[in-house]
Amino acid sequence: MMRTQTPRRCIAALSALSLTCALAACGDNVDPSQTPQANASSISGSFAGAGASSQQTAVEAWIAGYQKSNPNAKISYNPSGSGAGVTTFLTGATVWAGSDKPLDDEQVEQSKKVCAGQTAFDVPVYISPLAIVFRLRGVSDAGKHVNMDAATVAKVFNGKITMWNDTAIAKQNPDLDLPATPITVVHRSDKSGTTLNFVEYLKAAAPGDWPHKLSENWPNDVGQGAKGTSGVISTIDQADGTIGYSDYSQAGGLGTISIKVGDGYTDISAEAASKAVANASLSSEAKGEHRVVLDIDHTTTAEGAYPIVLVSYDIACPVYSDANTARFAKSWLGYVVSDKGQQDAMSATGSAPLPDNVAKTVRQSVDAINAK
Amino acid sequence: MTTTTSQPSPGLGESTLTAPVAGKQADKVFKGIAVACGILILVVLAAVAMFLLVQAWPLIGGDQAANSETISKFTGGKAHSFWGYVGPLLFGTVLVAALALVIAFFVSIGIALFISHYAPRRLAAVLSYIVDLLAAIPSVIYGLWGGLVLVPSIYPFWNWVAQYLGWIPLFAGPASNPPRTVATVALVLAIMILPIITSMARDIFQQTPKLLEEAALGLGATKWEMIKLAVLPFGKSGIVSASMLGLGRALGETMAVLMILSPGLKYSFKLLQASQDQTIAANIAAQYPEADSIGVSVLIGTGLVLFVLTFLVNLLARRITEKAGK
After folding, report:
1. Domain for residue A52, yes or no?
2. What are the helix (H) ranges across chain A?
3. What residues of chain A lie within 8 A of the CB of B289, using their CB?
4. Are both A73 and A50 inside the same structural domain?
5. How far apart are CA B304 and CA A356, in angstroms?
């Protein structure tokens, strides 16, 4: 056994070494000419956040942008997942948390411990359209979209429609020559905010065809599960006739479904998603000061709106006991929700910028951050 | 005169044979280290068991309503109690590992016999080396290979199996495409445990007393009969313990399962269909990142069950080996 262990250790050591080199290389490509001098009002110190992995790429872009004006602020983000991020935040170990779902009442109550007696608030910072991606020979590789209304999508993902040339699909796509290929549904096997936001759409837009309760875990036995967005995409890529859902930025060369909104079908795009969010209302269920929780109108009929979106929140305290931390939280979140910050995220991930009406409310909440 | 010469001089004997020498101290130290190492194993085992118990305690002694809510969230409402959750996982774990063992067992014995009794000396040396090399490949590599290469390319085969052998409930169709199924995972796990079983079995077959083999041949046995009469009975207990070692690895294998299998939560023997079963280890790895505190104790509770299972398997292996050794 010892003999067989040694080479394995060597491989492990080698891969660790190469990984370190790769990471070091990542950290090195900051252009020195772009690093400005620290000015008196800039923030310094080390600050940590944790939470939703969906935000990770956007947060990296924000950190890079933020550090241009605050080069002495060291910011880290651990993409440990929404649940873990909120749990860490509630222990006081992190300044803010990223989460694909708003806080629940119990968590709001618990936050008094870390927010100097006040309750934490959540604001939307990252809005990403969720694509329904598919691979079908003769359709997706020809760059064509397939049109579906909400009921059809729900039936496909609930296993009621099992063939691509089903009349329900064919009727909506008179121009396409759909093959008689069985549909393989691919969904997330791990707990995921992407799943939650997707089934929220199904539940709201096609309640008759989607009987399952809302959950971050996939609720039925249809099709196949795969771990993480990358797992879903690679599974879809491995066979003909597959369909699944993912963050738009990850959809790559796969085909996307156009969703019926009003009388027409909307192709997925950042602008279309932003339009749907602009029509959203503030949730009345969210109790607590400064909270901005969106109720997306999944049944919107606004022309050109794409109603399947993932809304990811940042969770922070209105009051921090440490003055420096409070100063950081205010300026950091201020940057994230600024036009510049939203543009950063858009160019890095293809996310939709916060619509003006939402951004205004969000900035008011962020401005309220104070030291005790 | 005679008395003085016949009696050994006590002073001389003591100084050279029984008096303490420099090595005596080292002997004590070495014994101490060896004992400490032995005890360390027990301490580590106890520490792991304690860790699992303590972390899983909220599940056993805590608020059962909260537990059942967490479990039903984990499973999208498919299971509500811990045993309803861990039962199918346990079933999946045993099914996948047992299948892998069945596939790997016969191939391994074949390779081991070829190396020890059939192959020319030089080829045997090369083969031995390759088998040891296979054992050194990390499981994540097998997982990547299985997920990216084997899964897309093995579909036509499984489809053929489902078409012509579909009347056997195990192979009931339609075969899933892409085939991220128990059958594919078992195949990859079989390849992973193959080198372990092979190299142990080979070592044992090579130790078969020459006398026994020559006696069998001398009685007119053919080579196959000689192996059946002399080699296999001699190596029986070794083969069993090699298999159990392989089974142990298959039971705990995480990465390869995680990267290939499309998980489900059923008691299902449908090997060619996706989303039927899941293993405990892969389930922990999949659910851990997004689990809250109760979720973590539920997952660690399933880990405790896996711990007990591997313990029992090893115990059983010991029993069988002892019986076969007699």
Report:
1. yes
2. 2-28, 56-69, 82-91, 105-110, 150-157, 167-172, 193-205, 228-237, 270-278, 323-336, 339-349, 356-367
3. 53, 80-81, 84, 190
4. yes
5. 52
Beta-carbon contacts of A68 under 8 Å, excluding residues fewer than 6 positions away, are A34, A35, A36
Distance from CA of A88 to the nearest CA of B (A): 10
Q: Which chain A residue is nearest to residue B258, measuring alpha carbons?
A: A227
CA-wise closest residue to B180 among A221, A255, A186: A186
For residue A88, what is the nearest residue in chain B, using CA coordinates? B292
Domain at A227, CATH number: 3.40.190.10
B39-51 pLDDT, tens per residue?
Answer: 999 999 999 999 9
Domain encompassing residue A53: 45-127+280-293+310-371
CB B280 within 8 A of CB B304: no
ipTM rounded to 2 decimals: 0.74
Secondary structure letter of residue A182 according to DSSP = B
Q: pLDDT, tens digit, for every residue of A117-145? A: 899 999 999 999 999 999 999 898 888 89
Residue with structure tokens 């004992």? B35
> Residue B275 is part of which domain span?
90-325
For A:270-309, CB contacts with B below 8 A are none
CB pairs under 8 A between A and B: 105
Query: How many domains are contained in chain A?
Result: 2
Residue of A nearest to B150 (CA): A238
Sign of the torsion formed by the C-alpha atoms of B262, B52, B73 and A86: negative
Residue A22: pLDDT band with limits 50, 70, 90: very low
CB contact under 8 A, B291 and A84: yes
Q: Both tokens of residue B202?
A: 């080979």
Rounded to the nearest angstrom, the minimum Cα separation between B325 and chain A is 22
Confidence of residue A315 (pLDDT cuts 50, 70, 90): very high
Give the H or E element holding residue B111.
Answer: helix B82-113
* The predicted structure's pLDDT at residue B317: 81
Does A220 lie at the interface with B, CB-CB under 8 angstroms?
yes
